[in-house]
Amino acid sequence: MAKKNEVTVEDKLRALFDLQLIDSRVDEIRNVRGELPLEVEDLENEIAGLEKRLENFNQEVSDFDFQTKEQKNNIEVAKEEFKKYEENLKNVRNNREYNSIVKEQEYQELEIQLAEKRIKEFAAKKELKLEAIGQLDEKLNERKKHLKAKKGELDEILKETEKEENLLAKKATEFQGKIESHLFEAYQKIRKNVKNGLAIVAIERGASGGSYFTIPPQIQMEIASRQKIITDEHSGRILVDPELAKEEREKMDAIFSSKK
């Protein structure tokens, strides 16, 4: 006979089955969300990348403006130099001095032409970059609108399920307290290894729930006695008798429906 406050094997089986029902309900809630959380995250990352590109593009435009300003300044300097040499021509004493000054003037004219060429190049590059900025801005605004819609959709679902999820988390903690850590870890491991996440199932028509492998009558009797934890040799799932499963489903269904 179990001592007062002692957790029996049956208590553990009930707690495990209740925990399974909670985890299955949480799985359903997450399925409703579908890929929304990942879609929101992907959009946020894409927007961050686009904003960084936009920042770089704007910096390039600023650089073109600065370089254009430098070239315009070079033109003004070259013009001033040309004027200075023009005055010097009035005082030349021989052909050698004349030729030297003329060469300097030609050099300044070439400097002006080179600066004007570069200004045109910078203007062309700036125009292309501004066009790219316009396209990037349009794409960024479209992505932000898409993100806002997806976030709104996700927030609506989260708002609807928040109360229920808080209750489920509280109840899950309560049931975990009745299960030893090694048994809980085993339960979690089984959940990860099965497709539908069902780590503990009831016997249905003489077989493990969802399976076609018949369980021998002797094993079925042991399961019904609720004296030890028994697993299905084919699937590895923990097994409980139909009556226990029915009782726990009714109990948990009442909790779920009253707290939604």
**Spatial extent as radius of gyration:** 40 Å
How many domains? 2
The CATH class of the largest domain is identified as: Mainly Alpha
Kindly report how far apart the N and C termini lie: 39 Å
Q: List low-pLDDT spans.
A: none
Helix tally equals 6
Shape: rod-shaped
Q: What string, H for helix and E for strand, traces the elements in order?
A: HHHHEEHEH
Strand order of the largest sheet: 2-1-3
Helix-and-strand structural type: mainly alpha
Just name the CATH architecture of the largest domain: Orthogonal Bundle
Q: Within the CATH hierarchy, at the fold level, what is the topology of the largest domain?
A: Helix Hairpins
The main β sheet shows up as: 3 strands, mixed
Mean of pLDDT: 91
DSSP strand count = 3
Percent of residues in helices: over 70%
Share in β-strands: under 5%
